[in-house]
Amino acid sequence: MGGTEHLTVHREGATLVLTLDRPEAKNALSLPMLVGLYDGWRAADEDDTIRSIVLTGAGGTFCAGMDLKALAGDGMTGEHYRERLREDPDLHWKAMLRHHRPRKPVIAAVEGHCVAGGTEILQGTDIRVAGESAVFGLFEVARGLFPIGGSTVRLPRQISRTHALEMLLTGRPYPASEAARIGLIGHVVPDGGALAKALEIAGRINACGPLAVEAVKASVYESADLSEADGLAAELARGRPVFDTADAKEGARAFAEKRPPVFRRA
Predict the structure, then answer these.
(1) Euclidean distance between CA atoms 197 and 190, whole angstroms
(2) Are strands 52-57 and 127-131 parallel, antiparallel or unpaired?
(3) pLDDT tens track for 219-230
(4) For the sheet containing 174-175, what is the strand order?
(5) How many secondary structure helices (H) and strands (E) does the chain include?
(6) In the chain, where do the E strands start and end?
(7) Do residues 206 and 262 lie in contact, with contact meaning Cβ atoms separated by under 8 Å?
């Protein structure tokens, strides 16, 4: 299934699970991890048997942000990872979902720390679940840095501007309860239960028509910056073809026959 020494990959039915796997460093982002993430997003895009993606972290932590020493090559394992970055200088931004949006839904399952670069990757996911002790935050300004992973653009579009600016300008930690209250995450579950909840949501998505799911996700994002009139026109362009698919006919037929539909991406 691919992966690297800092990123593990496995299947749960039609769900691809990507696990940040560097718990001794609180899953800080390393070059092997970024390469594994990028390859995971690409594998999900190219494999039509994958209907959803879950992103999580090993060892009770999601991600503590970027490991600057590892990214610079200090202690990095495998020079071929450096070669990958030379071949595609944009690879790290694609891995962090700044310059790439998977066509399948991405569900984040967060335990423990999800801060700095972790919160930035989180903003590239579609649905978010967290354990009740999870902690979020963009600490960059407190260290004299800039959250260049997309947060100054994305965060005010995902939560209210006042909450976004407070998070961006104070560099303080946010407990899961507050992150849910301001709309950064959607579910808070008992500690240790985030992955199970994310897989439950993924299972519901997987049972739906995959062409419809992908068209709905694409429509939401491509219309986000359009006027209402232009957005509605774009929605029609995305939505109408779905009604002509064999899957749409199968969905209606299965409803009438009171049975689960069998979708074939056709």
Answers:
(1) 10
(2) unpaired
(3) 999 999 999 999
(4) 113-115, 135-137, 174-175
(5) 12, 9
(6) 7-12, 15-20, 52-57, 106-110, 113-115, 127-131, 135-137, 174-175, 187-189
(7) no
pTM over 0.85: yes
Query: Residue 121: which of 49, 58, 56, 72 has the closest Cα?
Result: 56
Q: How many CB atoms lie within 10 A of CB 226?
A: 13
Residues labelled as active-site residues: 120, 140
pLDDT digits (tens, 9 = 90+) for 244-255: 999 999 999 999
Positive/negative CA dihedral, 234, 186, 207, 100:
positive
Rounded to an integer, the average pLDDT of 84-112 is 95
pLDDT of the residue at 77: 55
Q: Are 227 and 188 in contact (CB under 8 A)?
A: no
End-to-end CA distance of the chain: 26
Residues 6 or more apart whose Cβ sits within 8 Å of residue 140: 116, 146, 147, 171
pLDDT tens-digit readout, 110-122: 999 999 999 999 9
As to burial, measured by CB atoms within 10 angstroms (0-12 exposed, 13-18 middle, 19+ buried), residue 74 is exposed
Between CA 16 and CA 12 the distance in angstroms is: 6
What tokens appear for 233 in the block? 């026109």
Mean pLDDT of the residues in the chain: 94
Sorting pLDDT into bands at 50, 70 and 90, what band is 71?
A: low
